[in-house]
Design goal:
It is a single chain. The protein has about 150 residues and is α+β, with helices and mostly antiparallel strands. It is built from five helices and five strands; from the N terminus they run αββαβββααα. The chain has helices spanning about 10-20, 45-70, 110-120, 135-140, 145-149; strands at about 25-30, 35-40, 75-80, 85-90, 95-105. Strands 2-1-5-4-3 form a five-stranded antiparallel sheet, sandwiched between helices. A hairpin with a 3-residue loop joins strand 3 (about 75-80) and strand 4. It starts with 7 loop residues before the first helix and ends with a helix.
Amino acid sequence: MTHAVVTADSLTGALDRLVDRVRGAEFAVVLSPDGLPLGASRRVEPKLAEQISGVVAGLLALGLAATRTCDAGGLRQIVVQMSRAFLFVATIPNGTILTVRIAGDETEVGDMAYEVALFVGQAERHLPITLGPASAARSGDSGAQRRLR
């Protein structure tokens, strides 16, 4: 499979469009499999991206432990509900991780869950890296299990 060349600007644009499509969406960040920020929507300062990276590392560790304990397949998405916000963390087949935060009284959680799934399904258009064997990505293995073993 041939992948198009993707620039950081096109990834930023894709994340901005994701945030713009859902009422209450505040930001989106894509992290590499080892937790380094690859791109972010507008208004995401480097310090916030770094903090999100640390939070997501912990959430992924818990999610992967749950997948091993429950023997229910690969980790796809984690949703954290707080009193004033939701944090969506989704694994992408190439090993990268999408994180989106929504907040406010008029948030559309279902719409965001749909948009996150849509972004993950179309991630190859936005992300400049491919990791691991293609067969693992097609089988739904996010690469997250390989990183933490």
